[in-house]
Each structure stands twice: as C-alpha cells, then as structure tokens.
Amino acid sequence: MDPDGDCIGSSLALGEFLTRLGKSVQYFNEGPFGRREIKEFAHFFHSGFSREHRRNKDSAVAVVLDCSTLDRIGSLADDVADMTTAVIDHHSSGRDFGDVKFINPSCPSTSLLVQQLIESLGEKPTLKESEYIFFAFATDTGFFRHLGENSQASFQLVAKLVEAGASPRRMYEQISSGVSLESRQHLGMLLNRVESHFQGKFLYTWENLQEINSYGRTNRDSDSLYQQLMNVEGVEILLVLREEEPGKAAGSIRTREVIDAGKLAARFGGGGHARAAGFLSDLSVEETRKQVFPVIEKLLSSL
C-alpha cells in the first residue's frame, strides 16, 4: 500500500528479468500512486485480482517486494494467502512471512537485492532493468545521502548499473523535477508549524485531512521536508503525523544516528528502515501524539 520508488522500481526490474526468462508476469499494487516520481508507472499495476487471475492462481507464485509485513499489501493479502509466496525485502523491522525469503536489512534498497538475484543466476541487468534498479535505489537512499561507512558494496553494484547505461543525471531529473508551486506552499506550511521538544532533540509537525486535500495528495514533497528538518542542529528524531481519515493518523519517523526508526515505529504497529520508518494509528492525530511523545522522551533521556 502507498508504494514508494523502491517498491515500484524493484517490482518492475524483477518483472522485466522474469519476462526475459520466459515467465508470464503480472504486477499488482492497490496504490495509491500519490508520489510524484512514481505516477507514470501506475498503469503497469492491477489494483486487485480479477476472476481470471484467481483461476490461474494454482500455477502461479506471488513475489512480494519491499514489504516487511503481510498487511502492507492490503487487500491483496487475501488473494495471495493460499499461494506459494516469495518475499524480497530490506526493512529492519516487521513480521516475517512467505515460503521463500530473501531479506537483508543491511542492504540500502530492495532493488539492489533484485540486482544480486539477477547476478546470482549468471545474468546481468539489461538497460531497462538497470534504470528501474537505479531509480529505486536513488529514491530510497535520498540519492546516496543516507549511505554511511562500509557502503562500498552498494557503490560497486550501482557502478554496474551505470556501466549498463543507467544515467545518474537522468535519474536525478526524473526524481526531482516537475514539482508544483502547491508543493512548495505545502512544505512551507509544515515547516511553519514545527515544534521543538526535549532540548531540540525532537522535532514534530502535522497536518489534518482538510489540509491534505487542499494541497493535494500528489503535491507532497516529503523528502524535502525530512531533509530540511533533519539538518537542524541537535535533532535526533523527527515525527510527522498526518490525518489519513477522520479519527486515524499515519506517522513518519526519521532518525539521525543512534535510535532505530524501524524499531521505534514497530512499537506502534509499523516498521521500516533504521533511519526511516512509518506506522498507521487507529487514533486521531492528537491522541497519537499523546501516545508517541512519552516513548520518544524516554528514548532521548537515555542518550
């Protein structure tokens, strides 16, 4: 649900590879495809199983990419429940599922796991596959920003993608260009209401459903928001709460060095990466805020 560039790019890269191996591939994701950089790929994906898909389930395998828990695929979970399922993922927290698993939390993107899978079979990614893999990798790493020491293996893999023809400049333009004026105004609103807590170690901002609908769900530029706020001196944790529907909220967590964002999100039923994670709440934004703040205060008091 609510896929990002890594989820979509990894799916398309693996699908392209399986197709050239002679397999019949269908793509599924219930969306929404609200992120600007992935909107152009929405037409590849079915939102659910048709009658024909259900008739052919016995001869098919479901491959789930970039999801750490089964509930992250939404209503599709019911369709794949009785299918042989393979999982490829790199999140640091969640609840394992699937019959066959390729899970490596130390890998910065699921797409690089797809690349390793292709290479393990004695093949090399084609140009199209390389572009999908690079796109996915770049979106999940903030175009290399989130990589730390001991990242040489990732750079070696990415170098092979460039060797195959993937262009870093073209990928950057695809990911970063075409922002709307509304997205800048939306960013300004969220920045303007930021609260600083616990001696500046924790920043918090939020938006309600009316504001989300007013600015448009496709006009978010969350990466710029996270980048701006995590650059503030002394910040260890950033929390953004959004009202997804009346009485329910979604939380996005970013952390700097010590605190694992995925483990923190898991305490509220979510999950994700060590530095970036999220969760869904059946409580309002304000009630979710009251639930999360004491946990963060306790974590920061131990630093």
UniProtKB/TrEMBL annotation:
DDH domain span: 3-122
Record GO terms (molecular function): nucleic acid binding
Residue intervals of the DHHA1 domain: 215-281
SUPFAM superfamilies, A to Z: DHH phosphoesterases
InterPro entries from the UniProt entry: DDH_dom, DHH_sf, DHHA1_dom, Oligoribo/pAp-PDE_c-di-AMP_PDE
This protein's name: Putative 3-to-5 oligoribonuclease A
Lineage: Bacteria, Pseudomonadati, Spirochaetota, Spirochaetia, Spirochaetales
